[in-house]
Fold each of these.
Amino acid sequence: MRKLFKNSSLFIIFTLCVFEIYIRIFNLYDDIPKYDLLTNNILIYKPQQEGIKNFGNRKELVTKYSINKSGFNSIIEYEFIYNNSIIALIGDSHIEGFHQNVNNSIGRRVEKKSNYIVYEYAISDWNLDNYYKIINYLSDNLNKIENLFIYLSPSDLEYPLNNNLSGKTETNKIKKQNSSLYNIYSSIKTISAFNQTGIFQKYKNKIQSLQEVKPQELTNTNIHLKNFIELNKYYKINNYKKKLVYLVNSDLKFQKSFLEYLYKNFNVIDLSKSFSNANEDVYFKFDKHWNEIGREQVAEEIFRYLKKSKLN
Amino acid sequence: MLFNSIEYLIFLPIIFIVYWKYFNKSEKYQNSLLLIASYFFYSWWDYRFLSLIIISTIVDYIVGIKIHNSSQIKYKKRWLTLSILINISLLGFFKYCNFFIDSWIDLWAAIGYELSPYTLKVILPVGISFYTFQTLSYTIDVYKDKLKPTKNFIAFATYVSFFPQLVAGPIERASRLLPQILKSRNFNYQQCVEGLRLILWGMFKKIAVADSLAIMVDDIFLNYQSLNGGVLVFGAILFAFQIYGDFSGYSDIAIGTAKLFGVELTSNFKFPYFSRDIAEFWRRWHISLSSWFRDYLYIPLGGSRKGKWISIRNIFIIFIVSGFWHGANWTFIIWGLIHALLYLPLFLFKKNRDNYGSIIGEKTFLPTIKETFQTLTNFLLVTIAWVFFRSDSVASSIDYLIRAITNFNLSMQYMHPSGYRLIDYIIIIIFFILYEYKIRFDERSPIKIKNKFLRWIVYSSLLFTMFLFVFDNIDNSFIYFQF
């Protein structure tokens, strides 16, 4: 039995080495950008990082990212020195743009159709509180930004104000990435590649749910509206009402009371009509993010809004 | 507990280490541990249904002794009848109750009478079709004096519930497995290594072949009405590989796991898709079941020794019952009937043993043109029958096949439901066919490479391929668990 254990142990080490070689040769791993914190616990990426992202189990989608000096995935720097009008696009992973090459983001698509420059402020897992924090952070330059487009999804509205103020999620992420375990994780590409298959997802979700801010349970049918109003009040969003445009897909699970309030009180672009009119799927089949067609639809809707508001 | 789960990857090494390190003193200790492990393994799915295995075990343990101790044939027959009644009743109730109720209601509905439906929500206990047949083979063999009953209850219970083959076979004969259980097993390094190789190969078939094709098969069979004939043909072929990869993969894992504990199980699959006719197919597919039906149903009914018409009757009975064993649905019965109709001409023209004891490419590296033609034709016929096996109803099976023919189009406009590349799966299937052809002479030694470094590269590459095809969004329980 000792011989069996000895050979099994050697085999496991051998296999891990072979895996590491195969994964590096076939580039089956993700480069993971490191996080940073702005004032007021705004999570961004550490500036000037570049890398590759893989999606799908067998590299169905490979994209390049590039983090600019402001800490966001963009090939342009956010310097507010341009003569062209500037718009800001704020959101989560849908806007963050890891599912496309950085030079083909939604912002760049809008720029190709118009004379606007688009600054994309988006980080995966950001919620409405983060969106408003970044607006507050930009307050000194808001006079140079013509419109603020915020992409909202239902999960953005499930976090109450008090929980968000703790900044626990953001500081945990920074702590985690500074740990030696994380350094090992990011240097061993096999772990990153395994992680992508989703094989550890249910165990990761269990651990994460113990550590981080939990979304509220939706027993209350007005919780989206309640959180939205609370956050708007806290961040004095009404001051920017004229510039603000919310992008929503009303086919997603928004509570009815919230959507009614939003349409009545704010500028809204509803993506659901244009998505359903598209002849093909707007989402990746192996992922819930917008594909090429979906992103083009979003860019087109933003462009139409800008064109319409200019005529008005 | 599924073989391809993290729980099993933790469970197996623990039991293996404890078995050889602490319970190796005698067969009594070994069997006690195996019994506890087997009951734990089964309870992981649902502990309530453990009672059925225990009932079946106790009944047949007692019946075996009673049959042996009875001096008169009539008493032996009564005890045997009791065993058959209890086991078949358990199987009948849990597996076929709702089928008979629904069929009865449908029959009256066909002649215009509506009966109020009352269907019990009966859960099908995993593995019931396998372990009831296994215990029945024990009592029948004792009755026929082929085997002496054992008084060692622990050994008998271990034989019934031995976890590697408990839930999906191979269906082991008592005359083969029980003597191994009754003897103390000694650690054998080579046996363990062979076991691990079979487990690896079985996992590859399950994960990289069966599971990876499952999502497309489900999608094609669910949406067949909106797909062209070429895609339907593709879907049927994919299912043929899915069910083979799933079931033969499971059998390999079961046989490999048993080897780790010093037990040899029977081979259950011997490259059935390389068969040149249906008779050969049934000597290579689910061998433990087909031989069970041959020995305990076909031969007692007279086999082929009581004239042509009795033989024909017996052939139909065997294949239809075999179909029915697979599931409580008319589709399985029709599947069995199709195989009976395919087998019958071979039997009548005495061609059913033409390829007995040989395999494709026996004396040549490549198969002959005749063998290739025969194999492809046989595969086509088997795949047509699989459409009934896979479909929800007879009507949808017929509709599927009609559309596959009438709407046939070589342009395969099909997109994987999760957006993955189709070519990856075609490459896996081609590699799989070629590799299985290479190892066709010995199903128990799938990886036979002399050079250790090369062998380890092959092992790692198989593991790596599995890793590439791992999904977390499909039900990865074994197809045959539903039987």
Amino acid sequence: MIFNSVTFVLFFGLCFALYWTLPRRPRLWMLLAASLTFYGFWRVEFLPVMLLSAATDYGVGLRLPRARTQRGRALLLLTSLTVNLGLLAYFKYLYFFAENVSLLAGWLGVNWSPPAWEIVLPLGISFYTFQTISYSVDVYRGVVEPERDPILFATYVTFFPQLVAGPVLRAGEVIHQLKVRPKLDLEDLAVGVRRVIQGLFLKVALADNIAPMVDSGFATPLHLLSAIDVWTLAFMFGFQIYFDFSAYSHIAIGCARMLGLRFPENFDHPYLAHSPKDFWKRWHISLSSWIRDYLYLPLTGTKVGRMQSQGGLGDVTQQRRTAALFATWAIMGLWHGANWTFVVWGLYHAVWVYAHRLSKPSLAALPAGGRKALGWLVSLPIAMLGWIPFRAGSVSDVVTMFATVVDPGAYAALGLRETTYLVAALLMAGVCLAWLVNTRVLGWLRPRPVLWPVSVTLTMGVLLALDFIYLRPIAQFIYFQF
Amino acid sequence: MGSRASALVRLACVIGALGIALGLLHLLRPATERKGEDLALGAQARSVYSADAHGPLHCGGTTGGDACVAASRSRGHPGAVLWLGNSQVHAINQWQAEDENASPRVARALQSLGTDFVTFSIPNGSIQEHWVIFEWVRARLTLKGVVVALCYDDTRETGLRNGVLEALTDPAVQGRLEEHALGRSMLARKPEAATGGGELAGLDQTVQQRAERALVDWLQSNWDLWAKRHRNRLEVYHRLYRLRNTVFNISPSTKRPKIPARYAENLAAFDALLINAQAAGIPVLAYVVPIRPNAEIPYVQADYQQYKLDTQRLAEARGATWLNWESLVPEALWGSKGGTQVGVKAELDFMHFMATGHAVLADALIRTIRRDLLESP
């Protein structure tokens, strides 16, 4: 089911009413049934895939404490990884793998083409498999206790607000919340409703209206795009994906909040980041922290235990850190899609992080404020340009567009409608204004007993009107394709 | 603040927000039901799509174009001449009741000669869209000729809009497009062509699509506020458009620069149309559209002159007739349009003339179609 639809509004209204009237146990059953219904409204036939992932890790979680040997524990964890990554490998990467084998075979003079498989990618598979893997790993590491209640566990995995596009939830963040019966809190309700209204605005009023300009721009023959056009398209897609993805997170967090559940934040003004590290603490926070804890740190050989290591890489050699960095980012790229362009995107970010590491000693001499300002001025265009491989159709398109950007002669002409440049500039100004409001103005407004409710009322009234006008499921959320 | 007082404040905020939202929805609605394109035309101009006893003579895009095809077949003539153009073809400036544009005038004249006349015109129609419409129509009707209105302004457009996009699902159209590199590129860019896009495109092939369709249809029929959302969207767009024009002082007189990528694509589309028409033995008449004389045109002169040369070169290379009618309609037959900036009441209209102007265009078309399309060997 898609958030920006009448169906979801009715569906959630019903869930909300039932949730707050049912006792605890039936409430859990209701949540599970609602989540399965939510998913089934997309494709019923893929429900068993999701339940297989959940059942595997539920079983692994229960057996892990009972395993007597380290080998036994390792085998159980391997079972979880095999099933979940196997599902990903089949549904997401099989055709990609076969295509590349065919290409390689062609280079070697062997004529082989992959069969015309019609493999549909189950919605949300990249998210729920990561969620269940994280559960098994956390039980293995002793970070969380295994959950014995299968209904509770299944609800955690399938919970509809975050099922399809995150945030990627850790068991330790959510399961204990599902166990208790929260009280209906007006503050939670108010914040939740505001988040949903904001999220819908970002999606239906902004992202969906930017999309045609972006699509039109990327459909332009590449040799006719100037460097300014490439930069503009990079920024425009950067805004589109930010609004689209953060919208989903807002709505997911808002819906959960209305049910008395607190989800972690997934975005924190990423385009105000002053370094690559800062950017990844602000963009898709749940995924970047997942990658850090379950992939990067283990690749460096760092033991990640009960305290969820935040650092402590002192014993790791630079070479190992660098190798882990590039491997992690290549995998992170591939997670986003079965295409070499996503690997390029991942490696682009790896290079950015690596370059920043190398430049840190030189930057240390600058005053902190200046360092941050300079950092933002450098990080913003790098972050935005990084969206080119994410959106482009092929690696050769990426190379062509990057080549255009570094060609001084390509800055002379403009190839898009004038409105596109204007919209890009306005959106950048809007993002900066939003940051200013969130970090400076809201703190000043909140304690004021009249100004605060008046400004909230005005803002929500305007956003509600725009949500009503533009509520149409004309496009899926971008992250649905992952 | 006590919890009761806090709850009351929250309730007041909710009611306030709903009130503001409702107020905005009423504010953001045009006074009368008008089509989006008519808002862009201004208050004085009106789109007119004529019809006769058999059905429509004049359609917009291919969506809904079946009515024009059926009507043409019903008239029983052995063939038809197709006219492709932009809003200049359907819009009448200073419209009065009973005013006609050129389309029905030409239709009556040609029908008396045993040939039907069918018009397809869309606002800011690019040549890419004209090409797709041409292929769609000729898969359905026997064409004795094609008239293409060449408007330099519309070379800044690209892509296929919803009124034309659906035509890409037609195998006959696909086959014709695939014969050309541009056509293949157009087909490749339009994965949504299978569904024609639309308001529920995000739910394509899901269970939710049916539920959403049922709910939306019910709301559309039973809730006036919901049914009029398209007018709210139109008004939001229109106000943003006027605000942009005001801030950047953009008016109908502002010079429109060439967008090289789009210009190249539209010329390629024109060439593809000419090649396919020539291969099918369908004569083509291409004319540079009339623009308002005695006023500085809103184009960079060098680019505009080059456009005329380029289209003439292409047309003559493919055996088509090319005519420059930019001065065809005298100044007195043009009108004004509603201001496109905040606070501006009226501006010169460079593109749309009055009914009397349409009569002049119709006469020229009738003469030229007879000579170059129907009577030429």
